[in-house]
# Entry
Amino acid sequence: MNNLGKKLPFLLLKKENKKENNEKSLHYFINGSALLKEQLSFCNYGQQKIPLRSFTAEEIITSTNGFQESVGPYLYKGNFNEKKLLVKKYERKKKMDRHDHVIRDIVISSEMSYHKNVLKIIGYCLEFERVALVYEYSQFNYLFKFFSPFCENFLTWEKRVKIAIDVASVILYLHTEFPTPVIHRNLTSSNVILDQNGVVKLYNFECCIPLPIGKVKVQDDLIGTIGYLDPEYVWSSNVTLKSDVFSFGLFLLMLLSGKEIRVNHEGKYYTEDYGLISLENYASKCVENNKLDDNLIDSKILQVEQKKLKVFLNLALKCAQKVGEDRPNMIDVAKELQKIKKGEVQELLPTMECLLAWN
# Structure
C-alpha cells in the first residue's frame, strides 16, 4: 500500500504526459493533413518555393519564453538557435469559422516569400490547436502608427506613393501569379508594416480565397474588416478581384488623408457635416467648400503639386466606387501609381476618367 502511495503521483504525471502527447499528435495529424491538402490546391508548377521548417511546440514555447514579448496582435518575439524570429500564434479562444484559414495563411505566405514586400515565413508548428506561424525577424512598426498625432516619424509624399506602389504589387501578384487568381479580402493598415529600413511588407493572408477555374466570382461567408468591405460582397456574398480594388481605394485614401477612412455596408462614409454620404460626393463637396485639406488631404503634404494630389485622390475614389464594374483592374491601378510617381499626371489612363471638378 505504501509503495502504491509513492507511485501514485508518478503514475498520474505519466498519464497526464501521455494525454498531452496524444493531443499534440492529434493536432499534428489534423493540421498536417489540412496543410498538405491546401498546398496541393495552390501548387504552382515550375516555381521555386522556400522550404519551411516544422517546429515542435517545445521549440516555439522555449524560443518565445512562453510567449512573453508581444510585438503586435498575436505576434511574439523569439530567439531560436541564437537567431531572432517572429511567431504568430492565435489564442485558443479566437473564433474562426473554418479551420483552413490559418493553414491557407501558411501556404500563401510561403508561395510569396520571395516577394520583397511580403513578410518572409520560415516555418510553422502543427502541434498547437491553432497552428503557429514563424517569420524571419524584422524590427517594424505598423503603418497606422505613422498617422498617429503622437508619431514623430513623418511620411513624405514620395514615401506614401512608394507604399501604395509596393502594396499594389502584392495584390497584383495575388491576382495574376497563381494558377488561379487569389483574392486577399482583408487589406487594411493593420496588415501592413514598415521594417527598420522603411520597406513596406504585408503579412496575414488567412482571409485569401482563390477563384474557381474559369470564374470571376466566388460565393463565401463574409470575412474581413468592417469598414473596408466591398459593398457588393456584403450584399451578395460574392467576392471578386474588384473587392480587393475597393479595399485598396480606402487604403489610398488613408495614405492621402493620414487617417482611417471606413465606410458602411452601402459604401457610404459618415461625416459630421453631411451625415452618410458617398466618398465621391463627399470629395466633391470638400472641393466646392475648399475643405480638402481639413478632410481628405493630410496638411503635412499640402506643399505637393496640386495636380499630383488630384490624380491620387481621383484614383482612390475610382477604386472605391460602389459598383464593382466601375472600378479599374489592379493592373491599371498599378500603372497609374507609377505615372504619379514619375510625375506623368497630364493624362489619365482610359479607365481613370476624372471624378472631380477641381481646378
About this structure: The first strand starts at residue 53 and ends at 54. The chain has a mean pLDDT of 85.
